[in-house]
């Protein structure tokens, strides 16, 4: 056993779990989903049956039956002394009957590689003899790549010198590194909800206590809540995605950028702006980057080629004031020893052609977005489909708070999705589902047809009282 989850924390993470009868199977399914989403890591001790029963106001026999069901599907093992502990997931979700082969995986939003990438790689490979004669990796990044990244910022109206750029192995690694340098245990971090879940996980691992600020597909950033959260909790850091926020696809208006910048300044917070999705514009058009006239020490930007060029390239970066760059470089080797030079050389070459790349991305994402919107309107007209102007996904509002239940159900029919609560900071969002539109249109079509059938099944099986209750509350 590596860790323990309290009955209260588990009850919070389970949210509105009672989506079908019998109750013990609905509870077991919701715990399975927490395991699948990695919100319950393998090796976590679950609360004793009696404690969970009390926290959920259930009979102990219902929890005992749920744990028995989880043992039968090999999600947990129960031993005298240690209680019930989650097990590593098997490749196939046990107890469910879908063929992993042919399954449509919409849990990740990974666009296919930019078509010109293989050619650029071949060109770089032609100079491999010179590359392999060197050490081959470094913690700061090659001068030519840092200069190319700095130049892109300057073109966006954010004057930048190469000394303010550190190349990482992707944006995830950048988030982790920034968090490990800026945060101490118990520090508060303001974060959007819904948000990009791996950032929330990285911040929690660095010891952060997360303070959620809602972002609504229709209304954008909740500025009242943001100002209050900055003023009351004085967060050390705020982690934000101002352009094509993942998962809502929203971009901050100039007013939203300004209010958040000033509230962060008053609270003395460092604003970490994740711009991994910022270049994925379909039909929004250019906007001012904002956050420009604040204290340079309190605005950190993170970027990546993961969505614009290819997730497999593993090149990201941090733009920060020179002092912070030096601290990040000093801290980095404990985490990783640097970015491979081959990838860096490829990255420098593709940045030279970046305008063509973002134009291709725009066409691809438009096709995905429009196909997804059309099939959703046909199959699930009762859902509220947002019009997004860029990014990688839609954050869809369902007509009942059954996101986890439908995700479990489609899973057994070969469609893998992440339920709304995966993107939540505090366990909510059962009424939302993220669907990425980065997959090919025919896959999106097939997935939504399955989803429509599943939704009707799940909704019919949900206790009437449950649906009504959640419809009135959410
Ligand atoms: C907002 C956001 N930040 C960071 C990442 C991680 O990017 P990378 O693949 O460069 O590590 C992703 C990937 O999905 C993302 O959506």
Question: What does this protein structure show overall?
Answer:
With 474 residues, the chain is an alpha/beta fold. The protein contains 17 helices and 18 strands. The protein has helices at 7-14, 23-36, 49-56, 60-72, 117-125, 128-132, 143-155, 171-182, 197-205, 223-233, 254-267, 322-331, 341-351, 354-379, 403-411, 441-461, 464-473; strands at residues 3-4, 44-45, 76-79, 83-86, 104-105, 137-138, 165-168, 188-193, 209-216, 220-221, 237-240, 270-274, 299-304, 316-319, 339-340, 393-397, 415-416, 432-436. An eight-stranded mixed β-sheet has the order 7-14-13-12-11-8-9-10, with helices on both faces. A two-stranded parallel sheet has the order 1-2. Strand 3 (76-79) and strand 4 (83-86) form a beta hairpin. Helix 2 crosses helix 15 and helix 14 runs parallel beside helix 16 (441-461). The two termini are 36 Å apart. 47% of the residues are buried. Mean pLDDT is 91; it is low at 91-99 and 466-474. The structure holds pyridoxal-5'-phosphate. The site of pyridoxal-5'-phosphate has 13 residues, from helix 8. Pyridoxal-5'-phosphate binds next to helix 8.
